[in-house]
Structure formats: structure tokens, C-alpha cells
């Protein structure tokens, strides 16, 4: 994508958000549109597919902080057309001044930023720039989501996913030409992608209009991608989820994003992992490598002490409860938590809680009354009431 494309395309409008939208609002709008326009949801609908590509292109720029900043600066400077018809403030003497002059000058200087545009235009007099190859552009990062169960999150897993996203066109191999033919070097710019022209005291280089700055002419475009070399396709990938991943964390797959242009590397794929809660186990808020488990026990087991069997994710362990244990106490079972690749392991934190029977038969009621009578001298609220005075 050229700088001129950034000026002529309104990416915020494509996503239906304002230019002040937050990153979260942009992501939310993209996900909604991607679901509605996805080729799987609109089979054979060329218009929906074109919109899907446009929305993906817009998100590729606006989701990248650096690209979004450059895009906003470029639109703020040139979007209103303030340079058409002369220099700002009437500084130019006669003649028109086209936006292409600034775009080309920035490209020829090799920087591409707004400071490079102005520095090259006003700081160097009428120096004619030498030919410079068109700038390559790294592919946009792509986002996806994955849901796994609690056990896979704790142990780690390799999970296959199917991803619909822009990728190198398989039919033409990314060349943009129909299979059996190849692009040829543009005769106008000799493959450089830029042509020079003079205007008054200045000499400028601008993108070649014959090849649109690519340096190549495609006489017989690929019917699959229309000569772009990129098409939306379904890919099967394997995501390696590390042991101990938490809900909402992202796994990065380097080079699995949108392919780059002009030989630039592809972007990355970021997969947000969602973990399905477990019926028994949880993760400790203090240390995510520790697992948590609540075990119901009886009052006699706490008062007299007991040995109980408790589950782990893989098997069972025996837990000894000492006499006089209070309800709510937590015991640590070493090495029964998350095991990382480096060999370190978290623990299993077992909290015991008294389970109170909802109904008592006559013998149990009589026994409980006898117990209450036998322990009437014990007042568990003595310190509580004394401290309130």
C-alpha cells in the first residue's frame, strides 16, 4: 500500500468508527464486521468478499499503533487538500502543486515519514534525487481466537485451528500473474517504480503510473487474486499453547499473518486463548502456577483429625487433616500444580470447608444436643464480643 492510498482511503469509515476511537473499539468493530462479511458466511458473494478484504486492510493499519499514527498524520496534513493549487500560505509563485510531488519526494528520500517529506522538499534546493526502489511493506498482523479446556491450559497442548485471512495466492504463488506467465519489468521506470519530472525550480520523483509504483507490469493477471498476489483463503495451522496459559493471554505465531508486499516479511498471527472453567479446580490469584481446590469435610473430621483422599488433575493424593483444624484452612500439596517446560511446578492449594447437613434424623439430633451440652463452656465468640466493648 502506498502513501497515496493512505490519503485516499478512509479506514475509519470502513470500520464504522470515529478517528478518536480506542484500540478496543476498533477491535470490536472489526470483529463484528469480519463475522458478518466472512466468506464462510457469504459463499459466492463477491461484494461481501471485497468488503471483507477492505475491512481487513483497514484493521491491519488501525490496529498497529505505529501505522495508525503515520496514517493519522498523513491525513491531517494532506486530507483536506490544503496543498492543492499552491504552497500553504500562498508562498508559491504561480502554478499548481500536486500531492504526488510530496508523496514521491518522501519515497525518493527513503524515509516515508512526514518529516522526511518536508526535509527533502525545502531543505535541499533543486537537487534531483537518484532512482530509489519502491518501499516494501511488512504484512499486517492478524488476530484470531481459540477456546481450550482447563486441563489443556494447565498441561499445554497443540491445537489445530482453521483460519480465514489474507495470504499468498496459491494459484499464482504470489506473483499476481496467471499460472504459466510471469510479470515483466515496467519499461517506463525500468523496474524502479519511480519516475522523475521537473516543475519550476524543483525536480521530483513520483510513483510510476504505468505500474503503480511496483516496478512490474502484469499482462495476464491471476483470476484468483486479480494480480494482487494475495487472496483470502482458509488455512489450517497448529497452535502450540504453553503450559500454564491464562484466560485472555495471546499466543504469537511469527510470520503467520498477512503476507508482506514488495518482498517484505509477513506479519504475525496473535491467537487469544479462552479457557473453559473447570468444575472443581481454579487458578490462584497470587500465583497462576498454583491450582486451587475446595474440599468439603465434616465437623468431626476437623475436630478429631482425619486423612482424606482429594483429586488432582491427573490422579489423587492423600491429605492429612490435623485435629482442631478450622474450616477454611488451606493446605499446600507440593508439585501438583502447573508444570512448566523448564521443570518448575506449581502447587495444589486445598481449602477444607465444613459441610453442614440440611436435615438431621432423631438419633443425630439427640447426639448433636448431647454434644452441645458437653461443650457448652466453649464460647467461640468470646474474643469477638469482648473486643467490641
What does this structure look like?
The protein is of the alpha+beta class. 28% of the residues lie in helices and 24% in strands. It has helices spanning 3-8, 11-15, 23-37, 46-62, 65-78, 99-109, 114-122, 150-155, 299-304, 362-374, 382-388, and strands at residues 142-149, 157-168, 184-185, 194-199, 202-207, 216-217, 230-241, 250-253, 269-276, 282-283, 291-297, 306-311, 316-321, 330-333, 348-354. The relative contact order is 0.10.
| Rg (C-alpha, Å) | 33 Å
What structural class do you assign from the helix and strand content? alpha+beta
What is the multimeric organization of the chains shown? Answer: single chain
Spatial shape: elongated
**How many H/I helical runs?**
11
- Main-sheet strand order equals 10-11-15-14
Amino- and carboxy-terminal Cα gap: 76 Å
Give a count of the beta strands, DSSP E runs of length 2 or more. 15
The overall pLDDT average reads 78
Beta-strand proportion: 15-25%
Give a brief rundown of this model.
This protein is α+β, with helices and mostly antiparallel strands and about 400 residues long. The chain has helices at about 5-10, 10-15, 25-35, 45-60, 65-80, 100-110, 115-120, 150-155, 300-305, 360-375, 380-389, and strands at about 140-150, 155-170, 185, 195-200, 200-205, 215, 230-240, 250-255, 270-275, 280-285, 290-295, 305-310, 315-320, 330-335, 350-355. The protein is about 30% helix and about 25% strand.
Amino acid at each position: 500500500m502506498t502513501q497515496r492510498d493512505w490519503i485516499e482511503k478512509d479506514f475509519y469509515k470502513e470500520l464504522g468508527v470515529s478517528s478518536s476511537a480506542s484500540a478496543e473499539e476498533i477491535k470490536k468493530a472489526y470483529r463484528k464486521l469480519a463475522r458478518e462479511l466472512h466468506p464462510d458466511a457469504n459463499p459466492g458473494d463477491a461484494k461481501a468478499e471485497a468488503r471483507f478484504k477492505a475491512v481487513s486492510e483497514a484493521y491491519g493499519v488501525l490496529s498497529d499503533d505505529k501505522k495508525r499514527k503515520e496514517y493519522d498524520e498523513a491525513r491531517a496534513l494532506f486530507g483536506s487538500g490544503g496543498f492543492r493549487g499552491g504552497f500553504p500560505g500562498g508562498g508559491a509563485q504561480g502554478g499548481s502543486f500536486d500531492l504526488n510531488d510530496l508523496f514521491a519526494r518522501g519515497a525518493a528520500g527513503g524515509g516515508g515519514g512526514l518529516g522526511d517529506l518536508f526535509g527533502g522538499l525545502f531543505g535541499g534546493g533543486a537537487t534531483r534525487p537518484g532512482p530509489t526502489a519502491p518501499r516494501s511493506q511488512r504484512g499486517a498482523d492478524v488476530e484470531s481466537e481459540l477456546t481450550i479446556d482447563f486441563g489443556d491450559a494447565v498441561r499445554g497442548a497443540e491445537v489445530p485451528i482453521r483460519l480465514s485471512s489474507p495470504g499468498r495466492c496459491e494459484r499464482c504463488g504470489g506473483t499476481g500473474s496467471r499460472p504459466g506467465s510471469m510479470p515483466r519489468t515496467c519499461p517506463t521506470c525500468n523496474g524502479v517504480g519511480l519516475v522523475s519530472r521537473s516543475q519550476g525550480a524543483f525536480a521530483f520523483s513520483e510513483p510510476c503510473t504505468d505500474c503503480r509504483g511496483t516496478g512490474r507490469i502484469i499482462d495476464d493477471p491471476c483470476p484468483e487474486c486479480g494480480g494482487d498476489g494475495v487472496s483470502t483463503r482458509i488455512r489450517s495451522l497448529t497452535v502450540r499453547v504453553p503450559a500454564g496459559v491464562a484466560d485472555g493471554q495471546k499466543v504469537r505465531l511469527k510470520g503467520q499473518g498477512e503476507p508482506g508486499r514488495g518482498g517484505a516479511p509477513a506479519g504475525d498471527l496473535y491467537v487469544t486463548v479462552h479457557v473453559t472453567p473447570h468444575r472443581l479446580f481454579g487458578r490462584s490469584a497470587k500465583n497462576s502456577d498454583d491450582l486451587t481446590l475446595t474440599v468439603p469435610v465434616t465437623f468431626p473430621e476437623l475436630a478429631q483429625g482425619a486423612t482424606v483422599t482429594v483429586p488432582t488433575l491427573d490422579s489423587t493424593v492423600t491429605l492429612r487433616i490435623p485435629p482442631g483444624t478450622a474450616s477454611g484452612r488451606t493446605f499446600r500439596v507440593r508439585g501438583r500444580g502447573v508444570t512448566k517446560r523448564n521443570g518448575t511446578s506449581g502447587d495444589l492449594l486445598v481449602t477444607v470447608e465444613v459441610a453442614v447437613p440440611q436435615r438431621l434424623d432423631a438419633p443425630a439430633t439427640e447426639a448433636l444436643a448431647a454434644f452441645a451440652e458437653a461443650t457448652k463452656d466453649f464460647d467461640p465468640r468470646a474474643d469477638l464480643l469482648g473486643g467490641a466493648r
